[in-house]
Amino acid sequence: MKKILDNIKKHVILTADEEDVFISKVTIENFKAKSMVLKPGDICSKSYFINSGIIRSFTVNDNSVEHVLNFSCEGWWISDMYSYLTQKPGNLFIEVLEDAEVVVLSKENQELLYYEIPKLERFFRILIENSLIANQERLMDNLSLSAEERFEKFCSKYPTLIQKVPQKQIASFIGVTPEFFSKMKARLLKK
Length: 191
Prior knowledge:
Elements: H1 2-9, H2 16-24, E1 26-31, E2 36-38, E3 46-60, E4 66-72, E5 77-78, H3 81-86, E6 93-106, H4 107-116, H5 119-144, H6 147-157, H7 167-174, H8 178-190
Antiparallel strand pairs: 1-6, 2-6, 3-4, 3-5, 3-6
């Protein structure tokens, strides 16, 4: 639980008693690579903090093309935020790419924590604000940056994932076809 408590400490300081209350409201789960944590149509009732491993969220369009929204690795949170916050069926897949140990927080327990430890409401507000900023920045990048520039940003944001994640998923994340990505990467290596 040290990693998640350290994550919380970046924004709010909990007393020892508050840490105990928080720990009593979460569980640890292990997922094998290729496990689906969530599928479209499911109602997302949990958020996940990654202790170890890699998890991605993605959607599939009518032509069966995957669009990767996020990669989450150690120290990051992941959830289908639309479904989690509205408690309506979501439209994302959440898939484990590398065996993962996660801290699981249910929506119900998160609401209880807001009541029992009000400063955690501030913590989760900050997380949501940071997520909103990152999503807006990614949207702006997709509209204004070249594929090479988007790949460079990916490399700086996710330096450990370049060798761990299939290239077709990186291509999807930056918004290009796997073929284009392969040619672009070869061109960049020649520079």
